[in-house]
Design brief:
Chain B: InterPro entries: AAA+_ATPase, ABC_transporter-like_ATP-bd, ABC_transporter-like_CS, P-loop_NTPase. The complex is a heterodimer. Chain A is mostly helical. Chain A has helices at about 1-10, 20-45, 50-85, 90, 100-130, 140-150, 155-165, 170-185, 210-230. Chain A has one domain (about 1-230). Chain B has two domains: about 5-220, P-loop containing nucleotide triphosphate hydrolases (Rossmann fold, 3-Layer(aba) Sandwich), CATH 3.40.50; about 225-285, Alpha-Beta Plaits (2-Layer Sandwich). Chain B has eleven helices and 15 strands. Chain B has helices at about 45-50, 70-75, 95-105, 110-120, 135-145, 165-180, 190-200, 215-220, 235-245, 260-275, 290-300, and strands at about 5-15, 15-25, 25-30, 30-35, 60-65, 65, 80, 150-155, 185-190, 200-205, 210-215, 225-230, 250, 255, 280-285. The two termini of chain B are about 25 Å apart. Classes of the chains: A mainly alpha, B alpha/beta. Bound molecules: adenosine-5'-triphosphate and magnesium ion. The site of magnesium ion has 4 residues of chain B, from helix 1.
């Protein structure tokens, strides 16, 4: 059943710009560095011995913001597909469990964001090579910078999916989205427990991988909570 | 008796307001059951509970003699439905809309073409639903409800937004379903006239309570038309009829006849004319749904 639901969810994404956004996020992050390096490449290359490291550092400044924005926009898109003519009542009067409907939505979103992460790695690598940053490509760092934020951002995704699917007032997800984006932007001043800080991979221990495990653990908890609440409620 | 749908003490409360109270819905197999009630009576709320979209505050629902809370998915496999305003994906074509439902229902692709044909949307099947007229959208969701060849079809005000010819078309379709496909149909409406033409059983709900549930014939007896008569000196005319032992009522300057066969009416008119009253009007008054509700609720009170 879940496979069929996934196929249907991908079908409903047609002509809605989901794939374009999935591409736009990572492209935007790298494009900012294209501008940056395009304008002052010589200066930037003087900044550090480790040109790749410096370049990756520049990329990661914008990754969390793009990720959270992507989460906000994609979840609101996916909810709007069902909300537009209140198709929830039609969908959930079919012989499907609400849990699998919710799981399918979450899987689609996580899938799109994962594709974004892959694209981010590809774009980062390609432009890095184009810039001629050196023979020694820091593969591990590159992959960490591309995929760690995704896992660290899972709690935000789970929270947003829940808010977008259960709120009858569409202003609420938008408000939370705007607040989340601001929190992500100012993550360096936030305490470690704020989930919007996690995609920045910063924490008191200087151990980015902690954010990954926290993201997966808390993300799972928030996902389960959201799913159970969605199933418990009367359909809109 | 075995019912396709049977609810016991079904109730739904929203905050302080009880939208559905102790509903005992009984729908026999093969019937077109007209679920009738004014706006806000609780029809949609009941239907949502039947489809598992809302949890009852109390009471039980059995469909195909299975408990809905325990066997929701196996029940819903054999149910087709349409709830309130049409739901669809406007950025997809009619075909894609139906395909999205078909995949989940797991029925063969040919059903899509069949139901499109049934509601006459084959020609526009590959156009985006966004551009459809309201009537076409309504026909699309009716097609969607038929995809899985349901044994029970639940339609909440299915003729909303259709023009007269569309209404007749859908009405004819619904009428055919029980005999041709062995379906049982629950159709809600706030128009008695609409239910009257297709239903074989009727349930009337008012302020969340079932106030009448029986065959359409029994309801027709309740819904008898009235003959009103206006004459010179109406009140005296009324008294003269009473003295002659006629069954009549008097209200607001009009005389109402209880017996309504042509002969009875002729006799009353005759006797009034004979007594020198002038007859201005003899009218047949169809009672509105609201009147019938009032009549029925007042009867309930007497019991
Ligand atoms: N989700 C809800 N929250 C609060 N109250 C509700 C909700 N849904 C319905 N109601 C209330 O329940 C009552 C019955 O509504 P319902 O939609 O079932 O009526 P209806 O018979 O379908 O009317 P209509 O002919 O207008 O469609 C109304 O008073 C309505 O305000
Ligand atoms: Mg209604």
């Amino acid at each position: 059943m879940i496979r069929r639901l996934l196929q249907v969810d991908f079908m409903k994404m047609k002509r809605k710009g989901f794939w374009f956004l999935t591409f736009l996020g990572p492209f935007g992050v790298v494009a900012l560095q294209m501008v940056n390096y395009g304008l002052r490449k010589d200066y930037l290359l003087q900044q550090s011995e480790d040109n790749w490291g410096h370049y990756l550092g520049n990329i990661t400044v914008f990754t969390p913001l793009a990720l959270v924005l992507g989460i906000v926009i994609l979840t609101s898109f996916i909810a709007s597909v069902e909300n537009e003519t209140n198709a929830w009542k039609q969908l959930l009067a079919l012989p499907v469990s609400k849990l699998s409907v919710y799981l399918s939505k979450f899987t689609v979103l996580a899938g799109l964001l994962f594709v974004s992460s892959i694209l981010l790695a590809v774009f980062t690598l390609s432009f890095g090579i184009f810039l001629n940053l050196g023979e020694q490509i820091p593969w591990i760092e590159l992959l960490k910078d591309s995929f760690y934020p995704f896992f660290a951002g899972l709690p935000v995704l789970a929270l947003h999916l829940w808010i977008a699917t259960v709120s009858t007032n569409q202003g609420i997800p938008i408000t939370v989205g705007v607040l989340g984006t601001i929190l992500t932007y100012s993550s360096y001043v936030l305490p470690d427990w704020v989930i919007w800080k996690w995609p920045s991979l910063n924490n008191g221990w200087n151990e980015p991988v902690i954010n990954v495990w926290l993201g997966i653990g808390i993300g799972l908890l928030l996902y389960i909570g959201g799913m159970l609440d969605f199933a418990r409620r009367d359909v809109k | 008796m075995n019912y396709m749908v049977e609810t016991k003490g079904l109730s739904k409360r929203f905050g302080n307001e009880t939208a559905v109270k102790n509903l005992e819905l009984k729908i026999p197999k093969g019937e077109v059951y007209g679920f009738l009630g004014p706006n806000g009576a609780g029809k949609t709320t009941t239907i949502r509970m039947l489809l598992g979209l809302m949890k009852p505050t109390s009471g039980s629902i059995h469909i195909f003699n299975q408990d809905l809370t325990k066997e929701k998915i196996s029940i819903l496999k054999k149910v087709g439905s349409l709830v309130e305003n049409p739901s669809y994906y406007p950025h997809l074509t009619a075909y894609e809309n139906l395909e999205a439902l078909r995949k989940i229902l797991g029925v063969p692709k040919k059903r899509i073409y069949e139901v499109l044909e049934t509601v006459r949307l084959t020609d526009v099947a590959h156009k985006k639903v966004k551009g459809y007229s309201l009537g076409m959208k309504q026909r699309l969701v009716i097609a969607a409800s038929l995809l899985n060849e349901p044994q029970l079809l639940i339609l909440d005000e299915p003729t909303n937004g259709l023009d007269p010819s569309g209404i007749i078309e859908i009405r004819d379709l619904i009428k055919r379903l029980p005999s041709e496909y062995g379906m049982t149909v629950l159709i809600s409406s706030h128009l008695l006239s609409e239910i009257d033409q297709i239903a074989t059983s009727v349930g009337i709900i008012s302020r969340g309570k079932m106030i009448f549930q029986d065959t359409i014939e029994t309801m027709r007896e309740h819904a008898q038309i009235k003959i009103s008569l206006k004459s010179s000196n109406s009140h005296r005319a009324y008294q003269s009829l009473l003295t002659k032992g006629k069954q009549v009522d008097y209200k607001d300057g009009l005389i109402y006849l209880d017996d309504q066969s042509d002969e009875d009416v002729a006799e009353v008119v005759n006797s009034l004319v004979h007594d020198g009253f002038s007859i201005y009007r003899v009218e047949e008054e169809k009672r509105s749904l609201e009147d019938i509700f009032l009549q029925m609720t007042s009867k309930e009170d007497v019991k």
